[in-house]
């Protein structure tokens, strides 16, 4: 009978050990899944950060390449436009100087005086023919597609149209001994 009690005790101990084994195995399995999931999550986050960094780097490189391509294409267009505008301005300035010598110019070229700014020409009509000047004409020449006056040109035009034009003589004396100007007299 002692043997049976001993066998029974051993069976009970064996059952307790088996129960503890199963419980420990479940806990270990559960804990290993938690550790694995945490590792997997951190790896995914790291991969996502790496992907995001790579995508950002690639998008920046692509943007730089596209900008450089646009700059090269646009630079050529801008240079051509600048040359075209420069040629247009030069052509306009030359035309302003030469227009009195064109056959269509309604006044004697000898009567025209080039100023350039704020008006292009002043014509003293009749000055070269004799002592009498019939009219003084202020001329602004526009050679481009549009004939818009600048604000300064409009101000001069309005002043002339309003009759706010005067004639003055300034007399400046010069001292020969000291080589300097002395008196300034406006009449």
Give average pLDDT, whole number.
86
**Sequence of secondary-structure elements:** HEEEHEE
- How much strand content do the residues show? 5-15%
- Structural category: alpha+beta
* Total strand segments: 5
Q: Count the DSSP helices.
A: 2
List keywords for this structure.
187 residues; alpha+beta; rod-shaped
Describe the protein.
With 187 residues, the chain is of the alpha+beta class. It folds into 2 domains: 1-101; 107-166, no CATH class. Helix content is 58%, strand content 14%. A 3-stranded antiparallel β-sheet has the order 1-2-3, with no helix packed on it. The chain is rod-shaped. The mean pLDDT is 86.
Summarize the structure in short:
The protein folds into two domains: 1-101; 107-166, no CATH class. 58% of the residues lie in helices and 14% in strands.
Topology of helices and strands:
Layout (H helix, E strand, L loop, with lengths): L1 H97 L13 E3 L6 E5 L9 E5 L11 H11 L8 E6 L4 E7 L1
Antiparallel strand pairs: 1-2, 2-3, 4-5
